[in-house]
Hints:
Radius of gyration: 13 Å
Distance between the termini: 26 Å
Helix content: 25-40%
Amino acid sequence: MNVTCPHCHRANDRTTCADPNNPDAQPNPGDVNLCFNCGGPSIFTEDSPRLPTEEELEQLLANPRIVHAQISIREIHLKAGNG
């Protein structure tokens, strides 16, 4: 699945599900996406990810799993010298 990040506009050619109970799941409208390039959160729609609303963003940034995933993305880039 190709998705373009609404934050950094990078085309990402893969998605993965973070649900350990359903690792083969495909994204559905309303699901959260984190860009592997910038770590920016977005919300899947029928067509493409969109920026979260202010309320959605507040909820996402209050979620420890989201914040941990964003930190992990940054650490991967730093270790690779891309930071």
